[in-house]
Amino acid sequence: MNNEKQTHLDVLASVSIDENKSKWTRIGVAFPLKKRTGYSVRLEFLPVPKDRAYEFIIVEPGERKDETTEE
User: Fold this and answer.
1) Is residue 25 part of a domain?
2) Residue 20's domain spans which residues?
3) pLDDT tens-digit series, residues 4-37
4) Which of 12, 29, 62, 71 could pair with 24 in a Cys bridge, judged by C-beta atoms 3.0 to 4.6 Å apart?
5) Could you tell me if residue 26 is inside a domain?
């Protein structure tokens, strides 16, 4: 993270486009807690579980990975 005070982070999930490609899509935001270390996460959508687990990443705004990736 950069040195500026962070107001929120984006929560991204990998969404399958077809059998071999996926795309990172914003599914929510994470806000730093005020009284202790950690984040409060607000999801607008739930990702589909992969191998019985939910998988998502939390990144700084502007670091979105909109390009498709090969799996």
Assistant:
1) yes
2) 1-49
3) 566 899 999 988 788 888 888 999 999 999 999 9
4) 12
5) yes
Tokens of 64: 């979105």
The amino acid present at 41, given as its one-letter code, is: V
Question: Which residues does 2 contact at the CB level (< 8 Å), separation at least 6?
Answer: 60
Domain for residue 59, yes or no?
no
Name which of 49, 41, 48, 43 is nearest 26 in CA terms: 43
Task: Give the C-alpha separation, 7 to 9, whole Å.
Answer: 7
Alpha-carbon distance 41 to 30, whole Å?
4
Give yes or no for residue 57 having a pLDDT over 70. yes
54 part of a folded domain: no
